[in-house]
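pasting for the record
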Amino acid sequence: MTTGRQNIEGTNSTEARWVVDAVGITRSRTGSMARPWVVTGSSSGIGRVTAKELYKAGARVIMACIEESSAAERVAEGIRKEVEASHPELKVGALVVKKLDLSSLESIRKFADDLNESEEKINILINNAGILTRERRVTKDGFELTYVTNYLGHFYLTCLLLPKMLGSTPARIVNVASIAHTSGRMHWDDLTLEKNFSMFGAYAQSKLAVVLITRELASRLEGTGVKTYSLHPGILPTTNISNQIKESSRSWRYVLNFLSIFMIPLSKTQEQGAATTLFCALDASVAEESGFYYKDCAREEVALQARSERDAKKLWDESLKMVGLHDFHIKKDHKING
């Protein structure tokens, strides 16, 4: 990542400004960066870039990683060395690595309990982690892997951290969704896709759920000082997609290789992909907005199926049942019962 004010092809002017000058923007538009900034899936891809940029800006970043501590620590150390080599003049923040497996409710509870006990405040939660799986896989909790990793695990984590966030306002919850939500639909009678699984269908459903719950959370959190945002980071050449190509059968490999070649002209770098996440987490211009969806650092209209208030409320209720928070509700006096 460069720091000069050069134009970046494939981004609008606002996004380019965030990509090339994230450090300057974050320092000028936020207060103290010493508060914890939680980023899931921060060991690779745009999550790693997000963590790095916040670290460069002086933030104390909690890197929530699925990898074991030694592997995740190597990622954090790699970020420290990169920043030291490229920006030795910066007064950087801190990187704190913590284990989080979003496919496991037990792991999510342990992570949330740890943060709630150790952190005085949590102002920013960036739900970034995501996967794409070729075959249907079921977790030990009985959930389809794509749905729980991309959506339900983040929903559960958000609920468990809300008490702390409600006492840390102003606060923001940033959910990385995808333009794939436009082709998604909620299979209400088969959310775990036992009958209707397809790789892209599962991914699209999970991202539609992210957009719907962001809107529902905004409604339920109105007046509390906690704002919610969902976003499309762009088409990215992720490690996860590369792995799917390598692990696929010959016929699937042809299909995925064809799609990856088709998407190359439309794809962004990881730095460009992280720009809208940083924008939603940091920019003062959206501080009073909540529940909206963003693309290229600007508000974007969501798909018709993502505008349904009925489906958003139904998703809230179904999600609470699935994670076992049967009596959970939000009170506007910054307290949570449940």
